[in-house]
Amino acid sequence: MAMSNLEEFAQAVGRDVKALNQKPSPQLTLTGNTLGIVGGNTVTIPLPDNVGQEIRGTGSPEGRITAEIGTTYIDTAKTNGALKWIKATDGGNTGWKVVEGDTGWVLGWQYDTKKDVINKLYFRRINDVVHVKFEPKINASTISPGVNLILDYGGFESADNLSIDGFKPVDDVVQTIFNTSNDIYSNTAGAENSEGSQGTGAVIIQYEYIYKDRKKAGLQLQIVTSNLGVKENHVNPFSYLTEDEWPTTLPIIGG
Predict the structure, then answer these.
(1) In the chain, which ranges are E strands?
(2) Domain locations in the chain?
(3) b/e map of 206-222 (b: 16 or more CB within 10 Å)?
(4) Are 37 and 27 in contact (CB under 8 A)?
(5) pTM for the whole thing?
(6) Any alpha helices (H) in the chain, and if so which ranges?
(7) In terms of pLDDT, which residue wins out, 48 or 116?
């Protein structure tokens, strides 16, 4: 009888050990200075007096990570291209600013000319500077690959309410449209003919204003060309300063 009880006890212990081994281990997560357990509670770890520390986490810290002014944060996922943030205000979980970020080139506007070409405008934000370039999608072999904008003579194209949150300029931007570099070279061929290198139009990123309230409203993209222009054009890449917060989404228009 004693041996039977001992065997039953051993079997019970074996079952308990097996159950313990099968129980999943608790997993801890650390987001900024918030420590949590999967499926359980979280606790905010107090920050030391030395606020120049660097925090690592996933995703934007804005509205999520409490820190003192001067604290830096690395987003290991580089969400929307933002890698490094700094706390620009004292205390709380808001007031984070991107100090190192690169969205890469994103499509901001396109226009189908119905002539085997789709004009496209791309944005790329690096820190607080936005870079802009044009690039046509060309389906016709007769169009030079060096062209980046196809236009009609004396044409006008406009796109209202350009959807570029996070990419807006501080003020209106105007950029000259030129003939292609080969055309300019062949048409000038000497200083006496330098007027041949003059622009034949302009690309304008312009604010619409609510005059009653004297406030900026939406943005317009306007492309205006001269009757003296040509269909195959070149617009130099250009850049401007932005004061927008870092974009929470990246613009994708068409394909």
Answers:
(1) 28-31, 34-37, 42-44, 54-57, 72-75, 82-87, 96-101, 106-112, 117-126, 129-134, 137-138, 149-150, 156-160, 173-179, 201-210, 215-225, 232-234, 238-241
(2) 28-101, 106-241
(3) beeeeeeeeeeeebbbe
(4) yes
(5) 0.73
(6) 2-22, 181-188
(7) 116
